[in-house]
Amino acid sequence: MSFSELGLSDCLLRAIEGKGYKTPTPVQEKAIPAILSRRDVMAAAQTGTGKTAAFTLPLLQNLAEGEHAKSNIVRALILTPTRELAAQVGESVATYGKHLSLRTAVVYGGVKINPQMKKLRGGVDVLVATPGRLIDLYNQRAIRLSSLEVLVLDEADRMLDLGFIGDITKIMSLMPKRRQTLLFSATFSHDIRQLSGGILHDPIQIEVSPRNAAAKSVKQSIFEVDKAKKSALLSHLIRRGGWDQALVFTLTKRGADRLTTQLEDDGITAIAIHGDKSQGVRTRALAKFKAGEVRILVATDVAARGLDIEQLPYVVNFDLPKVATDYVHRIGRTGRAGLQGEAISLVTADDVKLLAAIETVIQERITREQEVGFVPKQVVAITAPRAGGPKKAKKLKKPKDYSAGKSAAGRGKPGKQKTVAGRGGKPASKPSAGRGRSAGQGRKPAGRGR
């Protein structure tokens, strides 16, 4: 099947051709016709499957057929969990829409709000935003959502992980009942299905890959090591394998900075990105990595979410993720577009429970290796995936119906709604729907897309 067979306009086909794409991916084949028919869509698609184009292309075509936005009006809103993802989605919207006369904007926290307010005065057809900054702009009366035609939740699972349920509740209350809603998530988890039940109307469901499946193009392996020798082993593997580039994940921001310093001390160029880095610093760091100026990009999960790095050969789990499904997200950044990739995890004796959870999620045992000179003194116990996959999440209270566009007052206090479990099994924060605090105020998960 070709893109022209999906019913896309000549303007969009020219933009697609300019990107060098010939045939649509499975998620694009299924989602584009459904969105063009203005149906609600609930899609499960991993990063790297072409999901951004799957909703961007039909969204732009539908908007091009209507009237342009007027003062402070937003016609279509794309919500993303992080700044980096917002920037990349915004770039895709601009690229695919370059032959259309639509106004677009991207807004997120970590930068000054006044330039963003100025850009929104004349209204925008497509606004890409993080939840926190969107609420800030609404409280400043810089935008109006009363005429919104389309809402897109991109990486909705990550928004729940980061505790954005309160912000989503607030945003839903500002929208009209009659709108098209598109929800894209890595998986159809229990919590995602609960959320979708409150915001989608008779959606078309699309699932293009097995739930929590690791890509077959990625070779997975584990290196057993004592904690004190992890950084030395990583430097050894980089030098021994002659790695040109690798994306390395750590659990904490401090750990990312510490590992970066240790790699630099070993003569390996490295740079770190995490929530304590300003948006400008993170953007420049990513640009240096993409340009090949540094070999190793060290990142936390939140900072790396949504990163689009082509032809990335290696992903390293310096620390295993606390949430097992994050392992799938991490290693999915290599082995794309038909290329082979390698995912390496450095595992200590203390990581056995995390490793067992990961192997249960992906339903396979990962190959173990030991490197001469780094054989651990503490034995890493044998693990095996539990049959039937991970345990089902505990049932949460059914969310209120946000599709009706009722006022927050008419629904009670969304901030008291039971929230999705946050990272590491701890309860996510319960932000009040109407708090409207500005970026940087109060407590928030590190790196959230404010």
Give the low-pLDDT segments.
392-399, 402-448
Helix content: 25-40%
Strand residue content: 5-15%
Can you give the mean pLDDT?
Answer: 84
CA radius of gyration is 22 Å
Number of helices: 15
Overall 3D form? globular
Report how far the terminal alpha carbons are from each other.
40 Å
Going by helix content, strand content and strand pairing, the class is: alpha/beta
Please report the first level of CATH classification, the CATH class of the largest domain: Alpha Beta
Q: What are the secondary-structure elements, in order, as H or E?
A: HHEHEHEHEHEHHEHEEHEHEHEHEHEHE
CATH architectural label of the largest domain: 3-Layer(aba) Sandwich
The domain tally reads: 2
The name of the CATH topology of the largest domain is: Rossmann fold
Main β-sheet description:
7 strands, parallel
CATH superfamily of the largest domain: P-loop containing nucleotide triphosphate hydrolases
Strand line-up of the largest beta sheet: 3-4-2-5-6-1-7
Account of the 3D structure:
This protein folds into 2 domains: 3-211 and 395-425, 3-Layer(aba) Sandwich (Rossmann fold); 218-369, P-loop containing nucleotide triphosphate hydrolases (Rossmann fold, 3-Layer(aba) Sandwich), CATH 3.40.50. 33% of the residues lie in helices and 15% in strands. The chain has helices at residues 10-19, 26-36, 51-64, 83-96, 114-120, 131-139, 156-161, 165-172, 190-199, 230-241, 253-265, 279-290, 301-304, 324-331, 352-362; strands spanning 41-44, 74-79, 104-107, 124-129, 150-153, 180-185, 204-207, 218-224, 246-249, 270-273, 296-299, 314-317, 341-347, 367-369. It is globular, with a radius of gyration of 22 Å. The two termini are 40 Å apart. The model is unreliable at 392-399 and 402-448 (pLDDT under 50).
